[in-house]
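Figure S4 source data
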Amino acid sequence: MEVDDDSLKPIPWTYKWIALACVIAFPIGSNWTNASLGPLKNTLRNELGITNAQFGVISSADSFVNSIFPIIGGMTLDWWGPNRITICCTTVIFVGASVAAAAVHLETWRMLAAGHVLMGFGVAILDQAQQKFVYHWFGASGLAFAFGLENAISSTVGMVAGMVAIPIRDRTGWYGWTFWIPAIFCGISMIINIVYVVFERVFIPKHLRLTSARAKALAENHKLNVKRIFSWRSLLGLPWQYLMLPGTQILQSGGANGFGVSAADIIRMKGYSEETAGFMSTGQRVLRIVGSPIIGWLIDRYGHRFHYVALAPLFYIIANSLIGFTNVHPLVALVFQSMAGLINGMPLNVCIPLLVADQDKLGTAFGIWRAFNNSGGTIMEVAYGVLQDGTKDMGYDKVLKVSTAIKAWGFVLGCCYIVLDHKKLGRGMTLTRQKREELEAEIEDPNSHPLTKRDVKKPWTIYTLSILVAMIATAWTLFLKYLI
């Protein structure tokens, strides 16, 4: 009974903040690498002699490999726990970043893509592990704020990396340092990861640690094969309330990149220098840095998660229209782009733990979510490159039109989610945290009330997994076609 009493006590804030400080440092190096690619697009085209489609292959390389790997990785995370998995991830990311940097010396773009593929093996699973860590340490009450703070740090790293990419190239006389610096940061992230695991194992009381499904099964003396790597039941046992998100979002992650990834190149084509374009395209992240914790706090305090999902596509549409089809200053379009990015991903990431409502399935759920996002991102990155190569003067008119069409459908989806929340989910995604917890406390049978009921519907499971297989096949086909 003593253990049970201890498990009911809240986790001390000292432990929470130390854990969060370590966890948000895990992906610093990989974030730096990805943020540097956009400003260097024109440089890479000239130095490596590649087309826009081939640049799309490089920029989507980490997404390509993670069209499948996050699902297996998510189930592995749930079964074995994230500690040992994250150390493997940060190590692989460090090796991949070093390979990418070495590729610049050899001027081999396929080796550069291979380095990003290696990084991709670790990036997506590391992201899923972060979600599990945050959900464990902060629970539903501070989830959005913690995600917001993590997004702010990530945006800060991305902003700095994007702003200094061209100055590093110009000051050192060689663009390769833009790849070696993040490789060094990847090594630092790996060390911080090891420090976190030691901190949890040595200083955190056992009842406050994140317990894996395997450890729980051993503790309960279940008769099962504890040597298995993961449980397939977690893949087939996800509720339809969650599956309706990845099953309908499909290409929305790729639609967001029509302007975002190539912002610096679009601005350069409007007559600005590469350095100025790089500063402007990454300076927009200031709004995300300041706004992410605020948006997280607002979601925790006032709810309306799906309303943000419906609002974000409108900002993307405005940004695409302004940058592509008007003569307004690029900063105006960048502000709308930044606002869209600010409120695009976080509400959905916050909704997933609430819709799954099972820590032992959370890694699998985020794995499927990442697989959908990465497949969609790979498809659209390569497609955008092909569209640009086929446009007069390699312009972005076709790219922005396709991106706008995808986001127009995203707005329709957001409105449908709001209606579905009211009719089928007990308004759980609209309610504030406090109100939702009050209602949950009054529910006598959680399996009969729409606010807490989480049931598996076979048709939804079959549909979602079928769509995922089709997207993965398409992503691999496009990637390999333009890689070879």
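Figure S5 source data
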Amino acid sequence: MIPEKYANETDYRKIPREYLNPNIPQGRGMKKWLSMATIPEQYERLEQYIQDQNKIEKPLLSEDQIENINDTLASKMIDNTLAKIQYFANGYIKSVEGIIHKVDTLDSVLYIYTDDVLMPVKLTDIYNIE
């Protein structure tokens, strides 16, 4: 029996558990919320799909474009002037500005100083040099 103190209480949370009917179902508990546990992964996957839609394929350069890049590269190295290099990386065209340090023809890598950091760029990934 419920003591008279709790007889008129309508909020079961205020009644001690030992006075409540033990046959009342507990509900679904966490089972109800298990479907929500997959949502973070879904959001991450959707975000990845959106990013993948913005990616482009690596541009193919014509012989004239390659020759123009080589000429510009040589003149920038001789003059030791600031160069803006556009290159392909992970589906995007990225840009870096700095002084060309050297070109490693064995490894096909161009090294450029940008903000006092030596950054390597693959020659095959270069899209444009200004």
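The mean pLDDT is 87. The radius of gyration is 33 Å.
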